[in-house]
Design goal:
Distance between the termini: 40 Å
Largest sheet: 7 strands, parallel
Strand order of the largest sheet: 3-2-1-4-5-6-7
CATH architecture: 3-Layer(aba) Sandwich
Shape: globular
CATH topology: Rossmann fold
Structural class: alpha/beta
Strand content: 5-15%
Number of domains: 1
Bound molecules: NADP nicotinamide-adenine-dinucleotide phosphate
């Protein structure tokens, strides 16, 4: 997997999966542009990753900010060859009957609509180049229901559908789109769960442990690379076997 000469934009790159994947892509030769809301974390990441790493601040749920960040990415690092649309939020856990409709809309905007906006923004350049790759971060909630968070489940089902739609429409242009599905990956998002609950979760994973961001990043890098040149419209879980197991 060699990314020399390629510019890959990673959203949600100030921590967790996005940060580790950006570092791996850069280590394999890519110029990476990091997008998230926290400038201090992005600057820390830029210094840690080194090379021609650039960053731009944006709340991806704000189309004007996202567009400006993607313009800045091109300005700093040239035409975009790959987009890893990874930023996402969990939203609150509330019974469906009481779920706040503003939170519902915000979750859909950050997790789904922003991915569409980013894809729409990078596609013209990719179509012109007759090549490019898009990777979206889904969730096990892209394929399964989960109680108490209808917004998250709907948004993550949505990004998988969006990925498939883009994959089919863009295949004739040499553009691929896939969805990587984290199971339980140890990031800031999971660190917020109380330790005893984390232990219970790990016990229900067939591998009996959570995954690391690097285990996710390796699969993300593969799907973004030319090694996956005939792979499009797919979802690939990195979950220690959870999705394929029966709950008892
Ligand atoms: N870890 C898991 O087990 C797991 C499981 C299923 C799905 N996922 C998905 O994986 C993706 C990455 O999550 P993670 O686990 O790596 O969690 P994380 O460490 O909390 O990272 C989330 C990233 O998204 C960014 N972000 C959140 N809201 C944003 C917004 N409105 N605009 C711009 N950036 C935003 C955050 O940066 P700022 O705060 O700086 O903006 C951060 O860089 C998400 O899509 C999440 O749904 C993770």
């Amino acid at each position: 997997m060699d990314f020399h000469g390629q510019h890959i934009v990673v959203t949600g790159a100030s921590s967790g999966i996005g940060l580790v994947t950006a570092g791996l892509l850069a280590a394999r030769g890519a110029r990476v542009t990091l997008i998230a809301r926290r400038a201090d974390k992005l600057e820390e990441a830029r210094q840690a990753i080194g090379g021609r790493t650039a960053w731009a601040v944006a709340d991806v749920g704000d189309k004007a900010q996202l567009d400006a960040a993607l313009d800045a990415a091109v300005h700093q690092n040239g035409p975009i060859h790959g987009l890893f649309a990874n930023a996402g939020m969990t939203g609150g856990f509330t019974p469906a009957v009481a779920f706040d409709s503003d939170v519902f809309e915000q979750t859909l905007r950050v997790n789904l609509t922003s991915v569409f906006w980013a894809i729409q923004k990078v596609l013209p350049g990719m179509i012109e180049a007759q090549g490019g790759v898009i990777l979206v971060t889904g969730s096990m909630s892209s394929k399964r229901g989960m109680a108490m968070n209808p917004a998250y489940v709907a948004s993550k089902h949505g990004v998988l559908g969006l990925t498939r739609a883009i994959a089919v429409e863009m295949a004739p242009h040499g553009i691929r789109a896939n969805c990587v599905i984290p199971g339980f990956i140890r990031t800031e998002a999971l660190d917020r769960i109380p330790p005893e609950q984390q232990g219970k979760i790990a016990g229900r994973i067939p591998q009996r442990r959570m995954g690391t961001p690097m285990e996710l990043a390796e699969v993300a890098a593969f799907l973004l690379s030319d090694a996956a040149s005939h792979v499009t419209g797919q979802d690939w879980a990195v979950d220690g076997g959870v999705l394929e197991s029966i709950e008892v």
